[in-house]
Amino acid sequence: MTQMKDRHGRPVVVVTGMGVVTSLGQGKQENWAKLTAGQSGIHTITRFPIEGLRTTIAGTVDFVPFENAPDLTTKMAALAGDEAVAEAGIALGAFPGPLFLGMPPVELEWPQRQAIAAASGKTADITYTDILKGAAAKDFSAMQTRFLFGSVSDQLADRFGTKGAPISISTACATGATAIQLAVEAIRRGETGAALVVSADGSANQESLVRFSLLSALSTRNDDPTGAARPFSKDRDGFVMAEGAGALVLESYEHAKARGATILGVVEGCGEMADSFHRTRSSPDGAPIIGCIQNALEDAGVTPADVQYVNAHGTSTPENDKMEYVGLAAVFGEHLAGIAVSSNKSMIGHTLSAAGAIEAVFTLMTINSGVIPPTINHTEADPAIKLDLVPNTARKAKVTRAISSSFGFGGQNVCLVLAAEPT
Amino acid sequence: MAIAREREAWITGIGLVSALGEGLDAHWTALNGDRDAWLKLDSTTYAPYQVHPAVPLDLAKQIPDRGDRRQMEGWQRLGTYAAGLALDNAGVKGADDILKRMHMIVAAGGGERDYAVDGQVLSGLAGANEPGKFLNERLMNDLRPTLFLAQLSNLLAGNISIVHGVVGSSRTFMGEEMAGVDAVRVALNRCHAGQGDIFLVGGAYSAERPDTILYFELGHMNWTKPWAPVWERPKDGGGTILGSVGAFLVIEAREHAEARGATPIARLSKVSSDRTRRKDGDAEHTLAVQWNEISPGLIPGATVVVSGATGVSEAVAIERDILDQRRVPTRATGSVIGHSVEATFPANVALAAMMVQRGEAVPPVGGSKDEAKMARKVKQAVVTSVGHWRGEGMALVEAI
Asked: Which residues on adjacent β-strands are paired with residue A13?
């Protein structure tokens, strides 16, 4: 008889369905084939004009037609969610629990601002007084609804038939992991037997790209798009902005077994520790990263020796990758030499609000398939970073337990412990 | 199979800033005062739109570092300030051992634009031969790099971590009024279940921004007629007057509070929430269901409803359906502090706690003729939230 409760006496939380969309393609199968072949989805941007930009590459999802960022976010979330609930064997529109949605903040974009300004009749010296006059002059109620933060979750809650109020989460680049964490907590409280987690980001528009560019966070390796994301390499120069969606059906082990669901893995633990050092930089001593990983291991009731694989945050920024190494070295110590570490972002870029969920899906696929996706573009090792990065080529390995880390602006740090179904 | 027995949750700290002042005492005085005390309307700055602006704050009292203040925009300053007030009020300000394991949930929108840049870009785009290139160049040259950090929804929480040292956990919920309800709900449920002992939860909203007024104007939801209490607006088309509010609560397990000798303000007993399509009476139905979950514990005649009514006609009608049946004295604070979207529910939980702690309801808000007088002792307050578009929620706050 397998254990329905964990070491802390809480319901064990399992994964019974997963879905994914990235620049590599739609669905787990296509993504996994490309990911394990070391293929990159990063390309020169064609969605909008790139003249005058410092960075002209991204991992945009170009095969989903869309009207604006919240629309693309919704559509990718729907695709990933459809795949996950289908795999879980749950009917579309009848999900037996709440929705936890990770997504980027919503804002009007330039086409909308232009449309509103145009309604004012003014074409020169436009001010917000004119924009407000434009808004008053016509019915923009459909635009208003679309650009409410709650409209993405509203559409998805209708689609999946989730129960109660959906929760929309933003913790910057840790959003996807936070969404999983909130769902795990709800199941552990006994509030629900199942929860749908979807995290999606379709916000790679001009202004978003410029904002990261102005913070000098992005790679400018424009001539070599597929080689631009090079996490942990000495010559890394920033992250590559990307889009995508990841979805997971979480259930208590008991709930899943009772309905005969196939178990894809266990979310054994979640750890968190916020950083009070700086808005965009990690504490130089790495204490919050270390604390967050340690909290996750403790929550899972495991030790560093029990972990075989780290699905790294690995953004390819000089700062993140160095601090992540410092954190891993402190937590895993002598065990680190025997642990494989790879960054999916070397191939799919940084999918921002979606990253934590997408990478959790890939981590569980790693565990289930016995193949670790590589860290591609690893040509020049950073002497300050001593990790087994599974360089450039996928590797067969037995992985029963892994961690997946996410770190974001605003001092957000979340770490998940994911494992195979206990036997 | 049993989950751990529910722990009692207390509100041990409140930080509230609005047009009526800073802190609960200022709010009590203003709400009990004359029209000049409770109506602090700015009808000129954004005319024809009106706002209830936050009182001027000596920001350095809660955000001592000038660099920190400069890294934030208005809504973040308001929220970080109110969070500091709440921590002070709970007696945990600077108590690093507690702040390290304090869990934070913030309900936030986002935004903050550079109005001058937006205007210039829109003016230029109108005549640009290559609009895409023009936009790239203007954005690359004109955007302030740090403005991004005032636009990200989770950077209010980030600033609270930096300024006040709250680092146990940090989550930001989005989704207008509903985000405020669920932030408080999840914090309470975690506290009840032992997933943490002490929580900081709340939100902040700046109404003094043309871009926030714009969101409501897209749906023609702003009230531009002479000021009137929210209940009186639907008969003239309805509408909201936005208000700047920062509202944070410290929610704490009773035994944790007692162990450190903290004084409770009130008990937070229950929070519920839902999202309906607002069709075929489903919103009215969920409010009735939520009310029925609370009502068996209500003491007849000792309850006041603290309503988050927006003034938007459809939402007000949904809420009236339940209030008119239950006939409990109601206080819609939005009439005088304005509608503060994500911050509305935390602010109303704070004002509900104020009333049950004092055992007394404030007079009908804004002199509303639709709100019954209440002379009897107040022991319980039901906080309601019917979002201007989506989200229906409720809380029960009780005297200790």
From this structure: A252, A267
Q: Which of residues 142-171 of B touch A (CB under 8 A)?
A: 143, 145, 147-149, 151-155, 157-159, 161-162, 165-171
Residues of chain B positioned with their CB less than 8 A from the CB of A138? none
CATH number for the domain that contains residue B26: 3.40.47.10
**Structural domain spans, chain A:** 13-107+147-419, 110-146
Overall domain count for chain B: 1
User: In this predicted model, what pLDDT tens digit does every residue of A330-381 receive, in sequence order?
Assistant: 999 999 999 999 999 999 999 999 999 999 999 999 999 999 999 999 999 9
User: How many H-runs (helices) and E-runs (strands) does chain B carry?
Assistant: 16, 13
Domain that holds residue B48: 9-110+152-398
Beta carbons of B304 and B279 less than 8 angstroms apart = no
- Using the Cβ of A137 and the Cβ atoms of chain B, whether some distance falls under 8 Å is answered with no
Q: Pairing state of beta strands A244-252 and A13-22?
A: antiparallel
How far away is chain B from the Cα of A245, in angstroms, using its nearest Cα?
Answer: 18
Q: Render pLDDT for B50-92 as a digit per residue (tens, 0 to 9).
A: 999 999 999 999 999 999 999 999 999 999 999 999 999 999 9
Catalytic annotation, pick one of A255, A270, A350, A415: A350
Cβ-contact A400, A419 below 8 angstroms: yes
**CATH H-level superfamily of A13-107+147-419:** Thiolase/Chalcone synthase (3.40.47.10)
**Cα–Cα dist B241/B208, whole Å:** 11
